[in-house]
Amino acid sequence: MIGETRLLFARPDVSRAVGVSNELPTGFRLLGLLPQASDSARNVELCVTASWDEEPREYEFVSATVEVIPAALAKRPYGDVVAPDQVSVLHRENIYGSGPPVTEPGAETLWLLQQYLPPKSSVVDVGCGAGAYGTQLMEAGHEWLGLEVNAGCVQLLQARHLPHRQVNGEAAGLPCADGEFENAICVEVLEHISDADRFLGEIARAIRSRALFSVPNMEVIPYFSAWQVVPWHLLEADHKNFFTRASLRELLRKHFTRVEVFSYAEHPLRTPDGIALHLHLFAVADK
Fold first, then answer.
1. What percent of the chain has pLDDT over 90?
2. Is the pLDDT of residue 37 over 80?
3. What is the per-residue pLDDT for 272?
4. Over the stretch 206-222, which tens digit does the pLDDT of each residue have?
5. pTM of the complete model
6. Which fold has domain 107-286?
């Protein structure tokens, strides 16, 4: 048995089909749970039966072959907190959390970085995390160095033998000399910074040419509202800043002479009007 219910309601169409009075409750809803998980889709025989308290016999009403598709919750964001064996009431800290550091680059983000970085330049990766973009940019001929404040990420950088400097979170600035690097990249970091203005001033101080930024795109929220959808990345607990194209451009213009911002990373779900929406913003800021 994968599910049962004792709550019935009137379904005249069902009553007519089985030849009983319309007043006899014949409708039901139930939640089923398969006893054995499967890694792949499979066909099963689903059988609906009924019984009454006064007699032990079960009466079979209908059976049908249905396809069972695994949820693969363990591989999905937030899958662990909605698994069937998780019965505790969830709290804010269970939902608004932080995921593990990313070790592999996003394909579209990497492509944009490669397109907008001058060839074979010196690049400081501010807030590099585990160094997801380091290897590929060095293979492309760039002189890459990562800056990271998180001790766990610094250990990953050491284990991956990636050049880096640890940032002192209590210090006033970044551990870089004035104009030490030609360019900077800052991928999904600016939204986590309490004093974004001072942070950008430090990036501008440390480079001679261009800075590239990627942040989550807040502009999608009104357009997804009809579907009651919010991109799960915006549930990140440590997000302190939320950007539109206009607000990101205005903030960057305080520290760079020329700024252009565009959206990227198209979401598979479109608006009811068929408008394509992008999850991230990309900014090119030149000194």
1. 67
2. no
3. 85
4. 999 999 999 999 999 99
5. 0.82
6. Rossmann fold (3.40.50)
Residue 128 and residue 146: Cα distance in Å, rounded?
Answer: 5
Among 193, 101, 226, CA closest to 153: 101
| Residue 50 pLDDT > 80 | yes
- The whole-number pLDDT of residue 80 equals 83
Instruction: Note the pLDDT of residue 71.
Output: 86
Copy the structure tokens of residue 99. Answer: 């995921």
**For the chain, which residues make up each domain, given as ranges?**
12-68, 107-286
Mean model confidence pLDDT for the chain: 92
Longest dimension (CA), the chain: 87
DSSP string, the chain: --------B--HHHHHHHT--TTS--B-------SS--SS-EEEEEEEEEEETTEEEEEEEEEEEEEE----GGGSTTGGGSSTT--SPP-HHHHS---PPP-S--HHHHHHHHHHSPTT-EEEEET-TTTTTHHHHHHTT-EEEEEE--HHHHHHHHHTT--EEE--TTSSS-S--TT-EEEEEEES-GGG-SSHHHHHHHHHHHEEEEEEEEEEBTTHHHHHGGGT---GGGG-TT----B-HHHHHHHHTTT-SEEEEEEEEE-SSPPTT----EEEEEEEEE-
Cβ contacts of 111 within 8 Å, gap of 6 or more = none
Q: Strand 258-266 relative to strand 164-166: parallel, antiparallel, unpaired? A: unpaired
Alpha carbons 174 and 195: distance in angstroms, whole number = 13
Nearest to 188 by CA among 125, 252, 122, 96: 125
CA 192/CA 248 separation, integer angstroms: 14
- Candidates 133, 129, 277, 132; CA nearest to 217 is 277
Residue located via tokens 């990627």: 214
